[in-house]
Amino acid sequence: MKQIIQQLTSSEHILLASHSNPDGDAIGALLALGLSLEKLDRHVTLHNESSIPEVYRFLPSVQRIQKQITTPAQFDTAVILDCGSLSRVGSAAEAIGAIPVIINIDHHTTNKRFGQHHLVDVDACATSEIVYRLIKAMGLEIDPAIATAIYTGILTDTGSFRFSNTNQAAFAICEAMVVAGVKPSAVAQYVYGTYSLGRIKLLNLALDSIEVSNNGYLSIMTVTREMLAETGTQPEDADGLINYARRIRDVKVAALIHELENGAVDDGGRKSFHVSLRSDGSVDVSRIATTFGGGGHAGAAGFSVESRLSDLKQTIYNLSDGFGEPCRVN
Ligand code: AMP
Ligand code: MN
Ligand code: MN
After folding, report:
1. Phi, psi of 307, rounded to the nearest 5 degrees
2. Between vectors from CA 125 to CA 119 and to CA 130, what angle results, nearest 5°?
3. 38-87, pLDDT tens digit by residue?
4. Of 19, 104, 273, which is best to mutate to test ligand 1, by the most ligand atoms within 8 angstroms of its C-beta?
5. From 3.10.310.30, 3.40.190.10, 1.20.1530.20, 1.10.1240.10, which CATH number describes the 197-323 domain?
6. Distance 266 CA to ligand 3 centre (A)
7. pTM as predicted
8. Contact (Cβ atoms closer than 8 angstroms) between residue 119 and residue 82
9. Ligand 3 centroid to residue 166 C-alpha, Å
10. First CA to last CA across the chain, in angstroms?
């Protein structure tokens, strides 16, 4: 932490970046640290290669986040947030990799410890928790804009204080953020309470797609490009839908197969997919994701593959043989 603060305070131009297809933590940590470093009169550029999902566009200064990095050579330091590996930032990974000093701030169990400085805490509920600690250690004031970013990061990464990463710090920091000016009901309304009609229709199609393995331990939900087209929705509208597949009694692992927009990769019907995995706590899905070249946390992980949909489903179904006996409480 000390070395990182020294590096940040002695840098002129700092690039901050988080993972593509960002969630609330990737955006919240990016904004909170970026706005804080500006208080130190640093020159700060915020980068995320994807469009910011509609539900996070209420965050103060969110329009500061740029999709492109025009002059990577100007930066003396890069801070990479909520990324297990540098490649998670997307197409700018190579350009960012050439920035002289890279600081890796993250909470994924699969973090590859890239960069010269690491602030990796796998027990942190969110990268926003670690960013909060860093801001406090720098002695900076947390204004309502920064507080809203941190609060949103923790709220969304803990699934509203329901997932297994929900720790004491999640409550303590969020309380402090409310004292600093956050309006919990307003944030909840933006993040969870303003779905488009198309998103509700997509939910309907996604629920209908759910299949469960013979032993009942694994559920698969599928969101295709066709479903998005039919409902007039964007990939971001599938965020969170996997939790419905996870809630089914006896299900230990839920998989959401998400067809990516680049479509067919060859004539054999192979396409690009992102697979999100969620566990009830009895199976470490980050290990499964790692075997497919992805990563994440014990309870929430993901990977991308090129496959035929039917082959991919079969591969995922085969995993469920190893999930053991169900543990029913009623
Ligand atoms: P998702 O699959 O987007 O629902 O993400 C679940 C968790 O796994 C998040 O913490 C992601 O950052 C992480 N994750 C998703 N895909 C990958 C990947 N390809 N490599 C490493 N981590 C990933
Ligand atoms: Mn994330
Ligand atoms: Mn996170």
Report:
1. -165, 170
2. 30
3. 999 999 999 999 999 999 999 999 999 999 998 889 999 999 999 999 99
4. 19
5. 3.10.310.30
6. 34
7. 0.93
8. no
9. 12
10. 47
